[in-house]
Design brief:
With 479 residues, this protein is α+β, with helices and mostly antiparallel strands. It is 62% helix and 12% strand. The longest helix is centred in the last third of the chain and has 30 residues, at 447-476.
Length: 479
């Protein structure tokens, strides 16, 4: 099954290279027929069929994402109605947010767009706004960032400038449920907090760093701790584990607890939104609970591949997304490299819990460094020690945050006290980012420095492996 899912992922990704016609389905059908007639080659034929089907589906999705009703109207202005679908992000001169245009002039449309408006009192996520809007083309490549390509890969082909607007309502359906859950969690985890600490708590719990000060955000990037502001598998594991713990405390069965975990994970994913890391982790958590409910074995590689397939099937352009690449590279590194690094650290005077933290930090840093260089042309030199120091605060911070969100409807004063405690944990994480990110040479941003870094890493790895071999030989000698 893993081979079939992996083949389907490869097929969907191939649609970015070329988009096949319906003839690819004939090839997939022929491969299935061959598999049925030749059992010895069934696995290969089935993988080919899965890849061909994925390729065909990826082409369909890309055609849909590239289709735009609003693009021919660029340069025109009309009365517009739009739904705000992302948190507002303040820039130097305006506020940017993603939205969905539902009416442009007399035309009824449903198309995503990037909305820009003056910085005064931007509407919240989920608001329905009316105003006079002018459509413009996304900006061409400039200063190393290609806004046009980035937006196109998210199904956005226009920029809507709204100089004035009026909030006329809020969205309904799944989006409205997501907004209410998000608002409740946001208000609970930062209850009574303001400024930097509230922004950090919101960023760590909900993956929304829009209110984090620019200077602190740069320090998080330089220190290699920026991933803490994106929702990870640890968040989802704590949500699911909290539901199981609650069921156990009130005396409910494990089955009820697993169903509760599924509901809690689904609500959390809705609150955070469709970030690649949370979708991947949510799928893995949901499949783990479903495996227990159905009495099937769990396979972490299978769960990882299913998450990749879901994301790519929805948007094949995701393969180019930095969040997608970093998330899957980090998880694969944890699966592959962490056990080997733990064995390398055996025999050194390092406590087991510290060795685990160092192994995870080193594995993730090594696996994500190429992605960081390709996407941002920068690699942090202090990521391993910074993560090792900051990591112990993350599990308590998230546990306290989710506990506060759970008790806020019943005990607001307790939620306020928990948010106060969490503010200190957030301040500790911010201090780690400031100290590590502020060190001279914390980041590598030149090709020469990168080559020196790679050479040094190979030397250190070779030395560590050599010392481990020496200890093994010495321990195996008699007497």
């Amino acid at each position: 099954m893993q081979v079939l899912v992996a083949a389907a992922c490869v097929g969907v990704a191939l649609s970015n290279v070329g988009r096949p016609g319906t003839s690819i389905l004939a090839a997939a059908a022929a491969a299935v027929a061959f598999a049925a007639s030749a059992p010895r080659h069934a696995a290969i034929a089935s993988a080919i069929a899965a890849a061909a089907t994925g390729w065909w589906w990826g082409g369909l999705r890309l055609d849909q994402l590239d289709r735009s009703v609003l693009a021919p109207r660029i340069g025109t202005a009309e009365r517009v109605r739009a739904v705000i679908t992302s948190p507002p992000r303040r820039g130097r001169f305006d506020v940017r947010m993603e939205g969905e245009v539902v009416r442009f002039g007399r035309a009824s449309v449903h198309e995503r767009t990037l909305i820009r408006m003056p910085p005064a009192r931007p509407p919240p996520q989920g608001a329905v706004v009316d105003g006079i809007g002018r459509l413009a083309a996304p900006k061409p490549p400039r200063n190393g960032f290609d806004e046009q390509t980035w937006l196109r890969r998210h199904g956005i082909h226009t920029v809507l400038h709204l100089d004035t607007h009026v909030v006329v309502g809020h969205r309904r359906g799944i989006g409205g449920i997501s907004d209410r859950i998000r608002g409740g969690v946001r208000g609970a985890v930062a209850r009574g907090k303001h400024g930097e600490r509230a922004a950090l708590l919101t960023g760590i719990v909900l993956g929304d760093d829009a209110d984090v000060p620019d200077g602190l955000r740069r320090r998080f990037r330089a220190s290699g701790l920026y991933h803490l502001l994106a929702v990870s598998g640890q968040n989802v594991a704590l949500v699911g584990g909290g539901a199981l713990l609650l069921a156990w405390l009130v005396g409910l069965s494990r089955r009820v607890g697993e169903i509760g975990a599924l509901a809690a994970i689904a609500a959390y994913v809705l609150a955070v939104g469709a970030q690649p890391s949370v979708v991947r982790a949510g799928i893995a958590g949901a499949l783990t609970s479903l495996a227990w409910l159905t009495g099937r074995l769990t396979d972490r590689w299978h769960f990882l591949l299913v998450g990749a397939l879901v994301l790519l099937a929805w948007n094949p352009y995701s393969v180019f997304d930095a969040g997608f690449q970093l998330s899957f590279a980090a998880v694969a590194a944890i699966f592959v490299l962490v056990p080997r690094l733990r064995r390398v650290l055996e025999g050194y005077p390092v406590p087991s819990f510290a060795a685990e933290g160092l192994a995870v930090s080193a594995a993730c840093a090594a696996a994500t460094a190429p992605v960081m260089w390709m996407q941002f042309h920068a690699v942090s030199l202090v990521a391993i020690p910074a993560n090792a120091v900051a990591a112990p605060a993350m599990a308590p911070l998230l546990a306290v945050a989710f506990t506060g969100a759970a008790v806020a409807p019943f005990a607001p004063s307790a939620a306020t006290a928990l948010a106060w405690l969490n503010g200190w944990l957030a301040a500790y994480v911010a201090a780690c980012a400031r100290v590590a990110g502020g060190l001279p040479g914390a980041q590598v941003q030149s090709t020469r420095s990168l080559l020196l870094l790679v050479a040094g890493a190979f030397i250190v790895a070779a030395y560590a492996c050599g010392r481990r071999e020496e200890r093994y030989v010495s321990a195996s000698r008699p007497g």
